[in-house]
Write a structure and sequence with these properties.
By secondary structure, the protein is an alpha+beta fold. It has one domain. It contains two helices and three strands. It has a three-stranded antiparallel sheet, covered by helices on one side. The longest helix has 10 residues. The radius of gyration is 14 Å and the shape is elongated.
Length: 72
Amino acid sequence: MELYLVAVMLQPTKKQRDEDGAVPTIVVNATAVIAKDEASAGAKALRLVPEEHQGKDDRLDVRVLPFRAPGR
């Protein structure tokens, strides 16, 4: 198991970008998780998305930053 820092952004729709000048919003602040790999860390990040943003998977942008132990 490894330590990862995860965060999730919600991308605006094309209409929101074009008409309102909307920009992405952070829906999950940077949070540390322990997972076996980056894919598992990303899945854990998606479980942290607030209920109000569930079902917007096509607009959710998951970011994963691994922390490697020295010498690995």
